[in-house]
């Protein structure tokens, strides 16, 4: 598989570079980053710590996509509009894990998915996919007598809050409790909690890769369902699997559940 990487100098982009470089069936053909990136022109293998691989970091998306069958994107929502337009034009399958997307970003993803296969997932790990399934089951079984609250913990450099994964877990709860309304933080005299609210909180600090806990709080008992990521390569491996899955698929939106087969 001929692969291009967008956001290649970021924490995730470097992890994808390392995983793709190790894989015998993958050739990295392009690596892109922002126009102000001080590393432009440098070999991305060297930046990722795997030695020279002969691919220079570029800010030119069109040339970075030349010859690529799949693109993996971990960047920022501001970058995605142009990226998806170019990928669609080039006929390249897209895997994106970028979070914090606004309505315009979602519209662009949907538009691109009319022309190319697109896998977007807030979290590329199997564990979080299973956690979402468990949350759905638990919230359904526990019913209205249990309050649902979600906490995500991430490193100090994360720019969006709550995390895309926290939002995904909230959606899993809402699939079986459509009455639940998101409350993003609480401050001041907010009054007693109502049964139909679902607090979502982002804790930020240190180098935490990503922890998520769904609290199910009843009378005299509570459940805490937690996923902890301890290695960023987890998400990179998921993204590479998603790229292998997407190449050759008909245009459309695909989920990580499609990739993982469940
Ligand atoms: N789905 C998942 O499983 C998963 C897992 C982890 C992270 N994420 C998400 O992935 C994204 C990236 O995370 P990260 O930790 O790797 O962030 P990061 O270290 O800040 O890296 C972001 C990368 O994107 C580039 N970039 C940012 N804005 C750009 C723009 N406007 N145009 C072109 N390139 C741009 C950056 O280049 P410059 O340095 O030049 O700006 C950098 O290479 C975030 O949205 C994060 O929430 C998803």
Structure annotation, total helices: 9
Q: Ends: how far apart?
A: 24 Å
User: How big is the Rg?
Assistant: 19 Å
| CATH topology call of the largest domain | Rossmann fold
What proportion of the residues form beta strands (DSSP E)?
15-25%
Question: Are there runs of 5+ residues with pLDDT below 50, and where?
Answer: none
Biggest beta sheet summary: 7 strands, parallel
Number of domains: 2
Q: What small molecules does this complex bind?
A: NADP nicotinamide-adenine-dinucleotide phosphate
* Total beta strand runs: 12
Q: Would you identify the CATH architecture of the largest domain?
A: 3-Layer(aba) Sandwich
Strand arrangement, largest sheet? Answer: 3-2-1-4-5-6-12
Order of helices and strands: EHEHEHEHEHEHEHEEEEHEH
What's the CATH first level of the largest domain?
Answer: Alpha Beta
Query: Which class of secondary structure composition applies to the elements?
Result: alpha/beta
Task: Identify the CATH homologous superfamily of the largest domain.
Answer: NAD(P)-binding Rossmann-like Domain
Nearest-integer average pLDDT: 96
For this structure, the quaternary state is single chain
The portion of residues assigned to helices is 25-40%
Report on the structure:
This protein has 262 residues and is α/β, with parallel strands linked by helices. The mean pLDDT is 96. Strand 4, helix 4 and strand 5 (93-96) form a beta-alpha-beta unit. It has 2 domains: 2-120 and 232-260, Rossmann fold, CATH 3.40.50; 126-229, Dihydrodipicolinate Reductase, domain 2. It has 9 helices and 12 strands. The strands form 2 sheets. The protein has a 7-stranded parallel sheet, with helices on both faces. A 5-stranded mixed sheet has the order 8-9-7-10-11, covered by helices on one side. The protein is elongated. Bound molecules: NADP nicotinamide-adenine-dinucleotide phosphate.
């Amino acid at each position: 598989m001929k692969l291009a990487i967008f956001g290649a100098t970021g924490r995730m982009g470097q992890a994808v570079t390392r995983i793709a470089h190790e894989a015998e069936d993958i050739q990295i053909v392009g690596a892109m980053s922002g126009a102000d990136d001080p590393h432009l022109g440098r070999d991305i293998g060297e930046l990722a710590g795997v030695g020279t691989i002969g691919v220079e970091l570029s800010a030119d998306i069109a040339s970075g996509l030349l010859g690529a069958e799949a693109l993996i994107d971990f960047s920022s929502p501001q970058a995605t509009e142009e990226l998806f337009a170019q990928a669609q034009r080039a006929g390249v399958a897209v895997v994106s894990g970028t979070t914090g997307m606004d309505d315009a970003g979602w519209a662009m993803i949907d538009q691109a998915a009319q022309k190319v296969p697109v896998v977007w997932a807030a979290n590329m790990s199997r564990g979080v996919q299973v956690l979402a399934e468990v949350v759905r089951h638990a919230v359904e079984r526990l019913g209205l007598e249990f309050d649902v609250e979600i906490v995500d913990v991430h490193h100090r450099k994360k720019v969006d809050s709550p995390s895309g994964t926290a939002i995904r877990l909230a959606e899993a709860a809402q699939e079986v409790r459509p009455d639940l309304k998101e409350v993003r933080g609480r401050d001041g005299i907010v009054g007693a909690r109502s049964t139909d609210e679902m607090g979502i909180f982002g804790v930020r600090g240190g180098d935490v890769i990503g922890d998520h806990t769904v609290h199910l709080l009843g009378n005299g008992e509570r459940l805490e369902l937690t996923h902890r990521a301890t290695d960023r390569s987890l998400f990179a491996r998921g993204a590479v699997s998603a790229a292998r899955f997407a190449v050759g698929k008909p245009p459309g939106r695909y989920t990580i559940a499609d990739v993982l087969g469940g």
